[in-house]
Amino acid sequence: MYILYINDKKKYNIHMKQSNKKLTEKQKRFYDSLKDLMDKKGESPTVAELVSLMKFSSPRAVTQYLEALERKGLIERSRYERRGIRLTDYLNSEPQTVNIPVIASAGCDNVNIFAERNLGDFICVATELLQGVNKDNVVCVKAVGDSMVDAGIQEGDYVLAEVTENVKKNDLVVAIIDSFAVIKKIEFANNAIILNPVSSDPQYKPIIVGKNFRIFGKVIDVIRVQPKGELEIVPLYDPTPSGSQANYEFI
């Protein structure tokens, strides 16, 4: 199992446990519910969501609880973000992690990597890498091939993907063609779907897909294993479209 930790510049708040003891019973119930919700969803709730969850009659009641927790050092808030609540134990303690199954290998060159489920392997990552996506909807595929190197994906990289068909133009996606898995940049043009490589190597050609095709997921992050066994988060490509390519491979 590979384990990825994100180094946090902040130190553990030694006053957190003391502050927790000063909570009233109602504040503690609110805090516990808030923490459980953020553990489950992997993101901060909105005030409206908290009103519904806590069955309060107005947003003001939520604001009062949040102000109390902030004064006692249990949360931090970004006033101008819709989902701006951060638990200080998330910010200051060891990173929260989640195990993501490595379910398949996906080709980054020709369509020659069979999409086989392999639930025997897992990669353990910090929840912040999931970018607010529900962990139950995230899987990992291992990249094979070199047609996505200019997108930051190399052979052997672990690619985190959200299982969804909701993608937009220029997203990096995992697609299934017949029974084969590929990682490409998706484009919608003239009633066609085009899966583009992101490489300056002319041997890699875009694929125009027809039947027997489906979008499996959207790439959200890439993790690379370094020679010494260390893991590195890889910046993804700039989604600005490059020049068009003339040669296409029809599937």
Please describe what this structure looks like.
Mean pLDDT is 76; it is low at 1-21 and 240-251. By secondary structure, this protein is of the alpha+beta class. The two termini are 36 Å apart. It has 2 domains: 7-92, Arc Repressor Mutant, subunit A (Orthogonal Bundle), CATH 1.10.10.10; 97-250, Umud Fragment, subunit A (Ribbon), CATH 2.10.109.10. The protein has helices spanning 16-21, 25-41, 47-54, 59-71, 88-92, and strands at 2-3, 75-77, 85-87, 97-107, 121-126, 138-144, 158-163, 172-177, 180-189, 192-196, 207-209, 213-225, 231-234, 249-250. The strands form 2 sheets. Strands 1, 4, 5, 6, 7, 8, 9, 10, 11, 12, 13 and 14 form a 12-stranded mixed sheet that branches. The chain has a two-stranded antiparallel ribbon with strand order 2-3. It is 20% helix and 32% strand.
Strand content: 25-35%
Mean pLDDT: 76
Which second-level CATH architecture of the largest domain applies? Ribbon
Shape: elongated
CATH topology of the largest domain: Umud Fragment, subunit A
Q: What is the gyration radius calculated from CA atoms?
A: 22 Å
Q: How many domains in all?
A: 2
Along the chain, the helix and strand elements come as EHHHHEEHEEEEEEEEEEE
Query: What's the total count of β strands?
Result: 14
Helical/strand content category: alpha+beta
The largest pleated sheet is described as:
12 strands, mixed
End-to-end gap: 36 Å
Fill in the keyword field for this structure.
2 domains, 14 strands, 12-stranded mixed β-sheet, 5 helices, 32% strand, 251 residues, elongated, Umud Fragment, subunit A, 20% helix, two-stranded antiparallel ribbon, alpha+beta, disordered C terminus, Arc Repressor Mutant, subunit A
